[in-house]
Write a structure and sequence with these properties.
Distance between the termini: 34 Å
Order of helices and strands: HEEHEEH
Family: Belongs to the pterin-4-alpha-carbinolamine dehydratase family.
Low-confidence stretches: none
EC number: 4.2.1.96
Pfam families: Pterin_4a
Protein name: Putative pterin-4-alpha-carbinolamine dehydratase
Mean pLDDT: 96
Largest sheet: 4 strands, antiparallel
CATH class: Alpha Beta
Number of helices: 3
Strand order of the largest sheet: 1-2-4-3
Shape: globular
CATH superfamily: Transcriptional coactivator/pterin dehydratase
Helix content: 40-55%
CATH architecture: 2-Layer Sandwich
GO molecular function: 4-alpha-hydroxytetrahydrobiopterin dehydratase activity
Radius of gyration: 13 Å
Oligomer: single chain
């Protein structure tokens, strides 16, 4: 089982994750696209990496915006799994 990161570890990791912020016990970022199709294409791109990691984000889609929230539910907070998936998702948003 993954271990929760300390507040200092989270802060240090967020320095390398532009646009991501800590909101309570999760990481969050809202990505903006040209239109709804861009939003859905982004969501479709993140499905395979999330499945491969066995770690699934909470998503909110609103026309040209997708808000991604990451937390490790079984430990009740942010773990390295969240940081790693945030990096992958950030790379997927650049098209």
């Amino acid at each position: 089982m993954a271990e929760r990161l300390s507040p200092a570890d989270i802060e240090a990791q967020l320095a390398n994750l532009p646009g991501w912020k800590q909101v309570g016990d999760r990481l969050e970022q809202t990505f903006t696209f040209k239109d709804f199709l861009g939003s859905i294409a982004f969501v479709n791109r993140l499905v395979d990496p999330a499945e491969q990691a066995g770690h699934h984000p909470d998503l909110s889609i609103s026309w040209n915006r997708v808000t991604v929230c990451l937390t490790t539910h079984d430990v009740g907070g942010i773990t390295q799994k969240d940081i790693d998936l945030a990096k992958v998702i950030s790379n997927l948003a650049v098209v």
